[in-house]
Amino acid sequence: xxxxxxxxxxFWQWRRPKFTNTGQPxxxxxxxxxxxxxxxxxxxxxxxxxxxxxxxGGQVSAIRAILAARSTQFRSKFFGEAGKSARSLLLPxxxxxxxxxxxDCRVLHLVVEYCYTDSCAxxxxxxxxxxxxxxxxxxxxxxxxxxxxxxxxxxQWGWRQINRHPALAxxxxxxxxxxxxxxxxxxxTLQLKPRAAMLPGVGAVGPGILALSKPGLLFVLRxxxxxxxxxxxxNVIERWTEFSAPGDTADSPLxxxxxxxxxxxxxxxxxxxxxATRLNLERAIQRSKLFQERDDLATGISxxxxxxxxxxxxSRRENSNVDDxxxxxxxxxxxxxxxxxxxxxxxxxxxxxxxxxxxxxxIAKRLELDPALELKSIKEQEQMHPGAQPQTIxxxxxxx
Length: 400
What we know:
By secondary structure, this protein is mainly alpha-helical. It has a domain of 49 residues. Helices cover 55% and strands 5% of the residues. The chain has 21 helices and 5 strands. A hairpin with a 5-residue loop joins β1 and β2. α13 packs antiparallel against α14 and α18 packs across α19. The radius of gyration is 32 Å and the shape is elongated. InterPro entries: BTB/POZ_dom, SKP1/BTB/POZ_sf. Pfam families: BTB (PF00651).
């Protein structure tokens, strides 16, 4: 056995002449280059002459000459007329304090780190929702501080991580909406891989649709309304409403859940419409948790589908008018190019006076005799039903 072990060790030594089992890791020998010397200055408080303060109160110390050498925006701010006048008011040995209300301390730290080291620690970290949101802020900061190299590195991080983990796209879109600058790659990933981006599986990196706020959810649903299956949109809305679980003791989590369910129900009525697969859509709505606890909707699917077909028209479609009063006595349907009517806060389309008169001939004759009759009837209906919607009042008028 000893001969065999010696032969095997000699074999590996022959394949790797410098191989040794007793070797110890050696320290990295510094090359004394200018890049390494510049990296060593990062965080050195003795040489720093300026302090950047973020909106959260955190501070980052730096050398103004290094920042000015990397960015023209820093150069004009530190060494321009405003910068010279601000330095003239400082005491000897006092650091200049510059407050940025648009950025927090983390973003400023990454910007300063890039100016020193030409890289950022966030790029080497494990991708998470927090890192994705931070990268979304850093992307906007790179353009604001005129750092094209940092912008390129942010794009490289996006191509590498978002393509590998599509569930991070929603987090970047949500943060981009707050800055009015949504990442194109994240939006493209959402459109090409909607299920992987919004409904990630077990073990996937990223929260998916759960990372979106209410404005972010509305933006995503509006973006995917015409190109994605409405069955998938219904599943997305249901997943979003389950983000907040009801509490056991306090009533605030339960109230938050009720609010999210009400918002999700409005989104379902807003963005989901009938299509060719009506039977499957009816079954999905019947099994949906959004409508199970609603007495007016749980009594039957016909009422739910009636809401989707009636006044809750959420997609812009051309209006069609029927001319029933022509001389020949025939009805001809023709499409008009009238401008789309404005939507209300919850997406209801209010019918105009002409449409109501054409659809309700009995009331039209009464209105011709007494134009103030409609206003009087609406006021009476509002007193009888204070919380009723305009559509409900119109239906009650038609019944009269």
